[in-house]
Design a protein that fits this description.
By secondary structure, the chain is of the alpha/beta class. Helices cover 35% and strands 18% of the residues. It has helices at residues 14-27, 42-56, 74-87, 99-112, 154-167, 173-192, 197-205, 248-252, and strands at residues 32-38, 61-68, 92-96, 117-120, 142-145, 210-212, 215-219, 225-226, 231-236, 239-242, 259-260, 266-267. Strands 2-1-3-4-5-9-10 form a 7-stranded mixed sheet, sandwiched between helices. A hairpin with a 5-residue loop joins strand 11 and strand 12. It starts with 13 loop residues before the first helix and ends in a 29-residue tail after the last strand.
């Protein structure tokens, strides 16, 4: 595939994020997803596509996929959620959108009694999830991130202390990402001994791992950022908390609930029960429902 020789991503690849989300979902027993994605921007469609491709090679099933727009309101989300609840059995929703949409969808799902865990990629991570920006906390929402504010690493603690001293608040993952990118570009300029763009690009392609806040950073041959330190966070008690630091009792609350179908038959996650496709039952799927046509 063609790529721009001077363009490098500043975010960990969507595929890596999707793999991390799927691993977390499987760990807690979630097996049937619906996908909901913002349709205006390539990165959100790309996040939804990456998630669907990753789950295709796992024991997780995508039962429906729909999209929404930047102007979609609570009525729009409520309509889709109600139809999903009536037509499908699912225990999780993967949302590829901004935190504004995640919080709105979360609230509508809660109001409708949709008992499904919401997962999202790093694009949705912001203070809005915790209620800082006025919305109520989206308790239980799980999101991929690349910055552990609870880390004991000296560089992380120094960064947090300096950031709080200057800005009077806790840095989020985007502040950490920007810091990591500045360090990476600085390392590339020093390696190239030049500020000429083509020289910096060549240095980035052959750069040894830079010690960024998410962990060691480097670039793949396709100019995607690489790190093995992606983490999963959950909104708990009004705060985004790193799942790996939770207590056993807190972890227990993240486990998938049993699935209940429209006939009130209990279907436990991970069993071999046959799931009836509503489309084969004479019901017409939502016109925007789609699956990837990538030759699978």
């Amino acid at each position: 595939a063609e790529r721009f020789q001077l363009v490098f991503t500043s975010m960990v690849s969507l595929k890596s994020q999707a793999e991390t989300v799927v691993e977390c979902a499987r760990k807690f027993g979630y097996r049937r997803f619906v996908i909901y994605s913002l349709d205006e921007f390539d990165e959100h469609r790309g996040a939804a596509n990456a998630f669907e491709k990753v789950v295709f090679n796992s024991d997780i099933e995508v039962v429906s996929r729909r999209s929404f727009g930047l102007e979609s309101d609570c009525w729009y989300f409520r309509k889709d959620l109600r139809e999903w609840k009536d037509l499908f059995k699912f225990d999780a929703i993967f949302i590829a959108g901004y935190s504004k949409q995640v919080t709105a969808i979360y609230q509508q799902a809660k109001d409708l009694g949709v008992n499904a865990r919401i997962f999202c990629c790093a694009l949705a991570v912001s203070n809005s999830l915790t209620g800082v920006d006025g919305a109520p906390p989206s308790e239980g929402v799980i999101a991929c991130s690349f910055f552990d504010t609870q880390s004991k690493q000296p560089e992380v603690r120094r960064f947090i202390d300096a950031y709080q001293k200057r800005y009077k608040k806790m840095p989020d993952c985007w502040a950490a990402q920007s810091y990591g990118m500045v360090k990476t570009i600085d390392a590339a300029i020093k390696k190239a001994k030049s500020s000429v763009p083509v020289d910096i690009a060549t240095a980035l392609e052959h750069l040894d791992q830079v010690n960024g806040l998410p962990g060691p950073l480097s670039y793949a041959s396709d100019s995607n950022l690489l790190t093995k330190n992606l983490i999963m966070k959950v909104v708990l008690d009004g705060r985004l908390q790193c799942i790996k630091h939770l207590t056993p009792e807190q972890l227990k609350t993240l486990e998938a609930p049993p699935l209940i179908d429209n006939a009130d038959n209990l279907v436990h996650p991970g069993n071999d029960a046959k799931i009836q496709d509503p489309a084969k039952d004479g019901k017409t799927p939502h016109p925007k429902e789609a699956t990837l046509t990538d030759g699978r």
